[in-house]
Amino acid sequence: MDLRYKSTRDSGLRICASEAILKGLSFDGGLFVPEKLPVLDVSMDELKDMTYQETAYAVMKQFLTDFTEEELKGCIARAYDGKFDTEEIAPLAKVGDTYFLELFHGATIAFKDMALSILPHLMTTAAKKNHVENEIVILTATSGDTGKAALAGFADVEGTRIIVFYPKNGVSKVQELQMTTQKGGNVKVVAIHGNFDDAQSGVKAIFEDKELAKELEEKGYQFSSANSINIGRLVPQVVYYVYAYAKLLSNGEIQDGEKINVAVPTGNFGNILAAYYAKQMGVPIGKLICASNENKVLFDFFGTGTYDRNREFVLTSSPSMDILVSSNLERLIYLITGEDSGKTKELMDGLKGNGSYSITEEMAEKLKDFEAGFATEEDTAGCIRRVYEKTGYVLDTHTAVAAYVCEQYQSKSKDLAKCVVASTASPYKFAKSVMTAIDGKYENVKDFELLNELESVSGVDMPQAIKDILDAKIVHTLECDSDKMKETVKTLLCV
Ligand SMILES: *Cc1c(COP(=O)(O)O)cnc(C)c1O
Predict the structure, then answer these.
(1) Which atom number of ligand 1 is nearest to the Cα of residue 271?
(2) Residues 6+ apart with CB under 8 A from 468
(3) Ligand 1 pocket member 424 (CB < 6 A)
(4) 254: Cβ below 6 Å to ligand 1?
(5) pTM of the entire structure?
(6) Per-residue pLDDT tens for 178-198?
(7) Ligand 1 centre and the CA of 436: distance in Å?
């Protein structure tokens, strides 16, 4: 039976997975969601002996039912290969009593690689299946990591182009260089004068512009999205939670059926939503711990039932989580309204109009699986230092936010379940913040000298992704105002 997808703003819509991947966002502004969350049809006993690629197939085939076995296995094989620096793809590091699920072993050393290595293959396969003749134009707003991972994934992929927008002063030096040095005949990178939310709203507005879509169609283009709203990104992220549980089991760390908690450093709510989907699929996950930095909209939401983006945007040392509008939350909202697309639309209109909305008590009742916390800049740095001094393991800033929130939860709740922390970036990506957290003496050392210091402090070899940018040439210098993104896109595509 084919699993079909509907829109969070139109429960009557039905399209297949490959169409949802091609479209990215629904024309009504909603996000695509499976009409029913699938359940794993293989046992943990089978899963525990599977490779990452085999696990990926077992999970993804349940969601992408209109892909043939050959198509899906082909996509998986091309995605999870030598681009990752370990055969395990997503290794689990036991540090003290905590398990860090390292999602940063791909081409750009952040967890976005887990999904963006496969998305281009899912998308080109989907295009073939749907007889798409147009060139697919990927538009992406990034808070730093998505941009590079999408560029790396789509560079020189036939039949596609990619345009990435990032906030000019909102990403780390390494992140910016990773993007502005990106090679590929089909890639464009634009710095906008604004923050990530401006970039994201701009991209969303372009997607919702029917006039523009028509103009592009005439020129042989169609848009799609590599942002985490694309179901083709969400689904591959479910895989590593299943894999992590199976690994814990095969390593004898847990008993079959034993509940674990999962702590996720959260921005756009994609990664933690994938963990929630894994739970719905049957993985024994107890609490989903949603960790925010000082942009703690989600912490406030889970505490009060009101989502309110009307607040100051804070630039933190975990920039990939500097987000006030967590797009993927809409999928959870849709579920807790009882899949009521009218109600969901009303709440999202409130967010667009007033910048806020409140859920009912009845809806809040359905959020019991989630715990939320946040870490200040000081908490984050303190956590990096403490973990390093105790164990020698070096956390990146994003991961440290989750590790801190996880610790807080454990001491407050006395919940003894084992905890897996999603480890979303290599410390090399945020070397300055990481090193100054470990020792204030690094405050005045230049970014790039710190990389060598980090190598000796952590004992972890400098990743290839870092070596690559050290002497690469900057090839992208375009900038634009955040209200000129549409014009910029038209110019770049000569429309
Ligand atoms: C994107 C990102 C996050 C946030 O993930 P979401 O799925 O947007 O919640 C956390 N850490 C890092 C390093 C990231 O790149």
Answers:
(1) 7
(2) none
(3) yes
(4) no
(5) 0.93
(6) 999 999 999 999 999 999 889
(7) 22
Distance CA 303, CA 372 (A): 8
pLDDT at 208: 86
Strand-by-strand arrangement of the 98-102 sheet: 92-95, 98-102, 418-423, 260-265, 285-292, 370-374
Residue 92's CB is within 10 A of a number of other CB atoms, namely 19
How far apart are alpha carbons 59 and 41 in whole angstroms? Answer: 9
Q: 3-state SS of the chain?
A: CCCEEEECCEEEEEEEHHHHHHHCECCCCCEEEECCCCCCCCCHHHHCCCCHHHHHHHHHHHHCCCCCHHHHHHHHHHHCCCCCCCCCCCCEEEECCEEEEECCCCCCCECHHHHHCCHHHHHHHHHHHCCCCCEEEEEEECCCHHHHHHHHHHCCCCCEEEEEEEECCCCCHHHHHHHHCCCCCCEEEEEEECCHHHHHHHHHHHHCCHHHHHHHHHHCEEEEECCCCCHHHHHHHHHHHHHHHHHHHHCCCCCCCCCEEEEEECCCCHHHHHHHHHHHHCCCEEEEEEEECCCCHHHHHHHHCEEECCCCCCCCCCHHHCCCCCCCHHHHHHHHCCCCHHHHHHHHHHHHHCCEEECCHHHHHCCCCEEEEECCHHHHHHHHHHHHHHHCCCCCHHHHHHHHHHHHHHHHHCCCCEEEEEECECHHHHHHHHHHHHCHHHHHCCHHHHHHHHHHHHCCCCCHHHHHHHCCCCCCCCEEEHHHHHHHHHHHHCC
Q: From the CA of 261, how far away is ligand 1's center (Å)? A: 18
φ, ψ at 43 (rounded to 5°): -85, 160
Q: Token digits for 27?
A: 């024309």
Taking Cα atoms as reference points, which of 237, 228, 227 lies closest to residue 164? 227
How far apart CA 368 and CA 362 sit, in angstroms, is: 11
Closest CA to 148 of 121, 114, 110: 110
Collect the ranges in the chain with pLDDT lower than 50.
none
Q: Is 112 a catalytic residue?
A: yes
Comparing C-alpha atoms, which of 89, 94, 402, 104 is closest to residue 252? 94
Cα–Cα distance, 137 to 142 (Å, whole number)? 16
Rounded-to-integer distance, Cα 26 and Cα 156, Å: 27
CA 47 to each of CA 57, 239, 283: distance values in angstroms, whole numbers, following the listed order: 11, 11, 11
Residue with tokens 């134009």: 137
Contact yes or no for 392/459 (Cβ under 8 A): yes
> Which residues share a beta bridge with 358?
306
Cβ of 64 less than 6 Å from ligand 1: no
Sign of CA dihedral 369, 384, 144, 168: positive
Contact in structure between 307 and 292 (CB atoms under 8 Å) = no
pLDDT value of position 436: 97
